[in-house]
Amino acid sequence: MTFVVTDVCIMCKLTDCVEVCPVDCFYEGENTLVIHPDECIDCGVCEPECPIEAIIPDTEPEADKWLEMNRKYSEMWPVITEQKDPMPESDAFKDVKNKFETHFSENPGEGD
């Protein structure tokens, strides 16, 4: 089992999860985070830390579509190991649905 970040994170990019990850398996895009599924040790400490519930275990039915997205972008984007301020628009976007189709950016984030 591994954990994956869903499109709920897009345009919010809250990094509470990054701060608790013991293996630094989070990677930063311009407007979202992803988890490298081969680096995640399945400890689960990140999931309850996400205030908007953007992290789910890959055992959830909806995780299949996010697993490959997390894998792909974790191999392209820089690692993030420290908590950062959320995106300024995070409050406005936290309840928006289907953000992958409308707001996802393939651009890398700043990294550490």
Which spans have pLDDT < 50 for at least 5 consecutive residues? none
What is the strand arrangement across the widest sheet? Answer: 1-4
Could you tell me how far the N terminus lies from the C terminus, measured between alpha carbons in angstroms? Answer: 27 Å
Largest sheet: 2 strands, antiparallel
H/E element sequence: EHEEHEHHH
| Assigned CATH class | Alpha Beta
Mean residue pLDDT: 96
CATH topology: Alpha-Beta Plaits
Give the CA-based shape.
globular
Q: Please indicate the percent range of residues in DSSP E strands (runs of 2 or more).
A: 5-15%
The tally of domains stands at 1
User: Would you count the extended β strands for me?
Assistant: 4
Look at the helices and sheets and give the structural class. alpha+beta
Helix content: 25-40%
CATH architecture call? 2-Layer Sandwich
What integer value in Å does the Rg equal? 12 Å
The number of helical segments is 5
Write the layout of secondary structure elements.
Blueprint: E1 3-5, H1 16-20, E2 26-28, E3 33-35, H2 46-49, E4 55-57, H3 64-74, H4 90-93, H5 99-103
Antiparallel strand pairs: 1-4, 2-3
Q: Describe it for me?
A:
The chain is α+β, with helices and mostly antiparallel strands and 112 residues long. Helices cover 26% and strands 11% of the residues. It has helices at residues 16-20, 46-49, 64-74, 90-93, 99-103; strands at 3-5, 26-28, 33-35, 55-57. The strands form 2 sheets. Strands 1-4 form a two-stranded antiparallel ribbon. A two-stranded antiparallel ribbon has the order 2-3. A hairpin with a 4-residue loop joins strand 2 (26-28) and strand 3. The radius of gyration is 12 Å and the shape is globular. The model has no long low-confidence stretch (mean pLDDT 96).
